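Notes to self after the call with IL:
- keep both proteins in one doc
- input above output, always
- annotate only the second one for now

Protein 1:
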Amino acid sequence: MAFRRLFVLPTLLLLLAVVAPLVTGVETLYYRDVLSTHFPLKAAQALLLETKLDSGLDEATLLPLVDPYRAGQALLGNPNALVLYPTSLLLLVADALWTLNAHFWLHLLIAPWAGYWLGRAWGFGRPGAWTVGVAYASSGFFLSLFNLFNMIAGAALAPAFIAATLDATRSEPAASHAARRRRWVLVVGLWALVVLGGDPTLAVATAALAASAMVARDAGSVPVQAILRRLGVLLAAGVGGLLVAAPQIVELARILPRSARGYWRLDAGSILVQSLHPLSLLEQLSPLLFGAVEAGYWGMSLHQGNEPLLASLHPGWAVLALAVAGWPTASRRLRLWAAAWIGVGLFFALGVYNPLAPYLLDLPGASLLRYPVRLWSVVALALAVLAGAGLDALMRGAGHRRYRAVLSVALLGAVLALAGLVLPGAPTIRGLRSLAPERLVPELLAVEAFRWSLSWALLGLLCVVLWALSARWRRAPALAASATLICHLGTQLVFLGSLLDTDAAAPYRRPPEVLAQIPAGALIVHSASQSLFGGPSLPGLDVEERSLIPSVRQRHREATPFFGIGWGRRYALATTPEGLDSFFTVAMRSSMARAEDAQRVRLLQASGVDVLIVPRPVVHDSLHELTTIPGTSPGASLSFVYRVDGSPPPYALIETVRAAPNMSVGAEILASAEFDPLREVLLPSDDAPSDRTPFEDSTLPAGWSVRGLDAPTVDVLHDAPERVELDVEAPRGGVLVATERAWLPVWRARVDDEDSKVVVANLHRLAVVVPPGSHRVALWVDRRPTRAAVAVSLLTLLGLALLCLRRPNRTA
């Protein structure tokens, strides 16, 4: 009871106080990937679920393979959508925005318990084990995940999976067979959740952490054969978890080869982007040293010109002090495990700054190391475990001198840093400004200097308070430990609270006003969100406002895909940054970004686009202005909304074919003034009957014939996201083009009773060649692999349930 009152309750109250606006739905996270990448994926899943609730659920609703609101890109096969992760069930009772935010705050509340379990598995007392959870959940690494929907789940569950592995492999002669089976079932279930959490790199790192923890614990005390046997069982459990997650894995495998990520080999620069610059390690000592997210990060030069993937790596001075205090008193095996993983994490996180990086890139699976700073996860977890060992030691009366020594050095550092701000010449300011003189302009430098002063003053005060509390460790260790953790967590939430920055949710629950001017069912391109017409229209950072909220609200006003999808609007060329959308769509987007305005308009027509939203005026005979969208501040530039004429209907039977040997030539043909998308279609040369020749007797495949000179007609009988049926009257034959659907390798086609090849039309659209005559044409997504994967997953779950329920054999 005392443990819950002194340790658990204060932690949960502090965390709940921070996330209360998200829990109540009054506010929403908004920074970077939250709304720009993950919200539209969740909104699409919610809309698909909502449309089927009244008519009954089916497999296409529960396991949607394509996203109709992004012109048919993959959904289930994209791990970033987390379609199968349990938080998706919240869509049954809540809207997509609340569900999205719940995914974050639920895992923040789970993380301390997962760390506590890991600490107990290493043999810590309850206060020390709880320290592991608090240190990990409040680390800069973990709080930085509050804009990474596809990483926070795996990160939160990683300590629990390692702990479950240690428990399942522990030698306990008194444990019953049923108890051991249940432990292994728990390992399988947690591993499946880590895999479904959306980040393969974190999943691999978690598996390695778990296996190595078991080996480190048992080495020297358990026979080698027993360790190998346990590793074998752990491998089998890992396979079981993959089988549970089979539907997502199978669908990813189906789309990956023809996705941008799978088709294009990533170069070294793409793989090693977001490497850990050595100077970034200074952030271990000073939180948000290079800028806060709400003020705009100014240390881009440390991250190859980008904002950092992880906005902070600061673990907290209390954690560092506890880790140093606990190091000599921790078991040799624990020290070896933690030190090894700190070294491994640092080695890989350095990425491009690691001199061995060129050799590592030649290894199989090197592309998994994209964004190498993600491997800081193992460092954050290892530091948290050492901090738990340190608090355990302090409660036993050990390590007090080392603990105070670290606090003294930290206090001295804070005083020196403050002095460097006020001494003549301000050496601290000069040193920091030299890192980014072009961005750290005088106005922002003054604001940052004030923020640094407050941070270092608060850090110095924290050291004084922790030093004062250290006098209570021997007389009232529980109270001292509880107060230490409360001080640490409170200061971390103050320092890094901007990583959980929120905005009012109400504006995003209202449809953008401009949608009233756009016809329902129109296929939209928002050029600024993909930089298609000369770059983004979003306003830059206002140094006085010190907020990114105006730019995010401007995205809402402009009905970007991030917000329009939530209101059932469909967008073309709305790709996501992880590279799992169709290679052909990404290539078309790249071609458009490089073209001139007139060529861009023709590429839009060939893609079946009806509406263009662009940050500047564009003059073209096929564009007709519908409305304008003013900026959020006086004098801000307008965005323009145009109707695009000359685009073919959603399903068009085209008789004249052009052939292209490659994507570059194809883009030139589509962008040329001679190409008419209403009467011509572009096919890859291998699929094209001829080059710019109508389907006539002389060019038809053997067995085809002309049945008259009537115009072709297309009647849509059924139009669903994953199945289309049409009656086609094709007097001279032609190509049936689904002008608003992306080509994916999961699509199949049938003309009457004959299977037909699905081809790529106009560089990225779905199409099928139709012979002359009247035909029933069907296009559908092949779900046979999905059904097989679901069957495997259900059978695995059934087997796990039977293992839990199985009664031990009784002998007479």
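Protein 2 (the one to annotate):
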Amino acid sequence: MNLTDLCIRRPVFATMLTMLPIVLGIASYTRLGVDLYPNLELPYVTVSTTLAGASPEEVETQITRPLEEVLNTCSSVDELRSTTSEGMSRIFVRFRLEKNPDAAAAEVRDKVGQVLRQLPPGTDPPIIDKFDSDSVPILTLAIGGKRDFRELTEIVRRRIKEVIETLPGVGAVSLNGGRRRAIQITIDTDKLQAYELSVEDVRRSLAAQNLEMPGGRVDAGARELVLRTMGRIEDPSRFSELIVATRNGYPVRLGDIGRAADMIEEPRGLVRLDGTFAVSLVIQKQSGVNTVAVAETVKTRLADLARGLPEDIEIQVVRDQARFIRRSINEVEGHLLLAALLVSGTILLFIHDWRTTLIASVAIPASVVTTFLFMNMLGFTLNNITMLALVLSIGIVIDDAVVVHENIFRHMEESGLDAVEASRRGTREIALAVLATSLSLVVIFLPVAFMEGRIGRLFHSFGLTIAFAILVSLFVSFTLTPMLCSRFLKLHRGAGGALAASSKSHLFYRVADRVYAALLGWSLRHRGVVLLLAAAVTASTVPLYRRTSLDYMPRDDQSEFDVLVITPPGATLARADELFREIEARLRTLPEVVHLLTTIGDTTGRSGRGQGDVTRGSIYVRLSDLEQRATTQFDVMRRARLILDDYPDLRSSVSDVNPASSGNSGGSTLDFHLLGPDLARLHEYSDKLLLRLRAVPGLVDVDTTLVMRKPELRVLVNRARAADLNIPVRTVASALQLLVGGAPISTYKEEDEQYDVWLRAEAANRGSE
């Protein structure tokens, strides 16, 4: 108790001792990130590999299996699964939770590097992504304008995207639905045959005659010059003049066998906002930064950029994660303030003294504000979990101060001691009990921070935050509270200086005391009944627990949800667009819908050049704010499912927006994994299981991850005739790939930008069978 005595004797020291962590806590509060939930650092790694044009069987045997074999040798692997589709392999590696996420990603990167040379030619380097729930999209912008779509894409990329990427806190900005410029060279196969040329001749000519190469150094007296061969074509129209070969002494130019056009890459996806084509920007934040602050910074910068853009360019903020976070945190902050006021009001109700109430209530801001310092030191953010800990701690942190204060007040009332001596004796007398009570609470909450599993990771910050707040309240009750009592606590005195009635003589206290005494007396006289009641209450927890719904995270009405749709295999982009327009029109009839952002196919180009799957898409549905509608988000989702039931040929689902979901389950609640060597039998069993599961009440959006093959046209090479002509199968396959699928074989440079030069057959030649 030397510290308590020192604080009573030295009030300035006690004040400074308490103010130091409070001031640091205030400074830390301004630096804390704001998010919806804590950042979950889970050791999950995804390896994505692309081989343009390859069949699922080829990708499975040549990419997925070699990668799985080497990744299976990683230490602490808990689960390894893969999804293989046309031209794409995705492998999901889940490590045990004790594995460091950075170490897991580094180990996967090293293992993948061991088999890079074994992957087939043309395979894009594998992309290794580490799961980070904090680096999630926070803003989605839709930009439209009454102008050429290629021009709109360039404006968005140069004047909006590249500016936003430089803002503090912004991690990545993805441009979706744009139309990137490209030089399209199309070949007339009839003319190619007439000149006795092959598409390989055209490819080699383009690659050899459109380049820029260094040639070393040239000494010119006292100067040294760099030699460079300037062979790039500087105007798109000059591609037609490029000489492909010479026949009978005459040059065969590219324009003789085809044409070159300054166009765009073949679209494999689209973005549409409320029925109008648009370009979208998906903005991600950096890990650990303030989501709300970053979103506000971006929107402020957008307002500045909008003034310098053409008048027909419109920017619409479709999705703003900070909006829900801001409202959620503000709601919790309101509950935090309300809890503090209610606790202080309760003390005033019992003790009837404003000085007592003020002295005891000081422990609340002192403990909460100081906890911000601790949260900042450990890298925590202000989120629903840490704010829940602070709200819960309000009624706990004041207990120590109230107990110490009440004991001091009791000594002054019953023994007539002055405030200084009563503070010394009262604190010393109750110190051990206060210490034991506070440490018992710490022992209860601190183990929560060290629970295992994903729940333990989620509530790690909860346990530490509330434990630290309790320890701070213990410190305040032994330092600041006795000092304030010794200086400001006074007894009410009546006329002549006599002590007025004690706090226990008030009517409210007398009524509460009599009721409590009566209940206590009855309980002691009927011990058996009390024990039976206690046993019944304890036993009732079992049926109540079974009737309580269980979930990993609460479902909040965020005024938004996603509609995911997969069209039948083989559908074109135009057909998918037609189906999505029908669904959009019906969803727009729901009165609560504000915006519909439709994304179809590969809108980013990440699935390989010209290889995106156009049968998949989603519709982001933005609802009016909760206070502006009578129905809930979940009712609207149910009505959206009824609309999708009218399209039995489509695979569809309606789900909450969950950008932090991990794995490849798509945020589903329940997963079944069917294993076996025969894919056809697995397909049969999965169809039977789907029929039975869809009949189970309460289950919605039941689907399978099996990707149906697209319809194929297969080319069978006559090896004997090919051998007679000295043409290997590889040459035939390469020619078909160039003529039908097309490929970028060179680049066109304009100022500081480079654009792909595509080579392909004319559309009429590609469409014939």
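Annotation: The two ends are 95 Å apart (CA to CA). The chain has a mean pLDDT of 84.
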